[in-house]
Structures are given as structure tokens and as C-alpha cells.
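Subject — a protein and its fold
Fields — amino acid sequence, C-alpha cells
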Amino acid sequence: MISVLRATDRMAVPWKNGGGITREVAVWPPGSSFENFDWRVSIAEVRDAGPFSRFENIDRTLMILKGRIALAFDERTVELDEASSPYSFAGDAVCSGTPIAGPVTDLNVMTRRGRAVAHVTLVANQTHQAASKMTLLLARDETRVRRSVQEFRLKPYDALLTDEIGEMELAGEAFVIAIA
């Protein structure tokens, strides 16, 4: 199975606290709610400072697509920007986020402990070996993906979801999320 998930098809949903919006990229199993997903990938726009939603038994990995944010936890504060490595933390930890110098767009990967694990890497202009049971590739910019005899052209924030093992040749920059 290979599915192309277009950014233009995603609906913006406001947060409960009004501090931003989120757009779901993909969820597994399809149609799952926050209570029963195995994994979920979304893009959020953070406009105002405020608490992050807490998710019991969920692990999160955050990457900044645009802007800069300070994440405050009980024991530390971390600043992240577009050049930062993916940052992982427990979804049930108390955390608040403060955009620095304007709104922030982030990529959020959530996995339910004991049911899924995600590994996130940024790949640019190279061949990538999809080796997990699910791979989600999210284009950071215009990206061409060649897989065997198929070719996919992705615009920024378009995604490609596959459960097929094998090589993907990338021309462009994309986040590769391997989910096991």
C-alpha cells in the first residue's frame, strides 16, 4: 500500500485552549480517536503561549517546521527551531510552549506505548531504505520520491504513507518517520 496524503486536503481544527490549530496528517488505525490510536502524525500551528495537551501512555516527538519555541517542563526548558534535531518526550509530562518571535509550525509524532514506536530522521537528496512496517514521509519542500517504477511529486507538507519495505530515492528534503 502506498498513499499520497495532500496537505491541501487537511482540515484545520482549533485547540481547546484556543492557542493554535492542528491538522492531522495520518493516524493508525485509520479513523482512530485520541483514546485508541496506535500512532498519530499532525502539523500544528502554535500562535500563543500555553500548556501542551497531556496524553497518558503516549510518547511524542516534535520537529519545528517554521519558527522557534521554548518548551518548559518541570525540570528543564528546551528551545527548538528549524535546525533542531527531533525532540522526544513523554506525552503525559507537564509541558508548556512559548513561541519566540512569532507563530511556530511543528510536526508532532505521537505513539502509544506498547503498541508503536517511531524513529524520525530528516533526509535530503538521497536513497532511503524503508525497513519498518510503516513509513510516513513528510515533504519539507518540493520533493520527488521514486520507488521502483513509481514516481511521486510532493509539495511542501504533502506526505507519502507506505507499508512496503524497500528503497525510496528522494530529490528534495523530507522527514522520514519509521513506525514499528
